[in-house]
Design goal:
This protein is globular. Helices cover 28% and strands 31% of the residues. It has a single domain, classed as Vaccinia Virus protein VP39 (Rossmann fold, 3-Layer(aba) Sandwich), CATH 3.40.50.150. By secondary structure, it is of the alpha/beta class. Helix 3 links the parallel strand 1 and strand 2. It binds S-adenosylmethionine (SAM). S-adenosylmethionine binds next to helix 3. The site of S-adenosylmethionine has 20 residues, from helix 3.
Length: 202
């Protein structure tokens, strides 16, 4: 699935494809977050992660190319009584705000290699000094598993890709392995992921 139209179709309807609860890994990084930080949830779909960041007191923005997903994100934020800015954009072509964010959450965003390089370069520009990049994505070991992830293997992440695309950031954590996902109907069961916590030097 690699178009905004396809994602709009996936998000049509009342259910939340990945649930309304924020990603486990992201919630586990809550101890690093402080109210007032400017946070960006990349490819945030229906907004579970952006809304959670807003609930922690951060100034949160969700960007995604699915207008249908972001409409649900805005509705979820309103229901939870928090402020969430939404931007409908292709992250490979978006004009990422330079040093605009103290936290960038990149949760299960899988892009074709050329777009991945463009979007990662944008994220690098957008990360303020001292800012954190928090990433969880599927790895090639996920191929064949039914617990989620892209069908096209070229979209999968790896530790090596994290190191290449985010070279220059300080590594606070960088792990790959098996985790149990329980995130809405689309992410259920054991899964193979890479998790990264990276920081731009001050
Ligand atoms: C697997 S979903 C994950 C959604 C969300 N991060 C979560 O964890 O609940 C991938 C998301 O990436 C978005 N996406 C994929 N390619 C994109 C692109 N080029 N620009 C913006 N968003 C994109 C999709 O619309 C979708 O919402």
């Amino acid at each position: 699935m690699s178009s905004s139209i396809a994602w709009d179709e996936r998000y049509a309807g009342g259910d939340f494809a990945f649930g309304e609860v924020a990603n486990d890994f992201l919630r586990g990084q809550g101890f690093r977050l402080r109210p007032g930080m400017r946070a960006l949830a990349v490819g945030d779909g229906e907004g579970r992660n952006g809304v959670w960041l807003a609930e922690q007191g951060l100034v949160a923005t969700s960007v995604d190319w699915s207008a249908v997903g972001l409409a649900k994100a805005a509705a979820l934020a309103a229901r939870r009584d928090v402020a969430l800015a939404t931007v409908t954009a292709d992250v490979a072509r978006w004009d990422w705000p330079v040093a605009g964010f103290d936290v960038i959450a990149w949760i299960f965003v899988h892009l074709p290699p050329e777009d991945r390089a463009l979007a990662c370069a944008g994220a690098m520009r957008a990360l303020a000094p001292g800012g954190l990049l928090l990433l969880e994505c599927f790895t090639p070991a996920q191929e064949g598993r039914r617990s989620g992830g892209p069908k096209d293997p070229s979209l999968l992440w790896s530790r090596a890709l994290v190191e290449r695309h985010f070279a220059g950031l300080e590594v606070l954590e960088l792990l790959d392995g098996t985790v149990a996902l329980d995130e809405g109907p689309r992410h259920q069961g054991l899964a193979e992921v890479v998790r990264a916590v990276l920081r731009r030097p001050s």
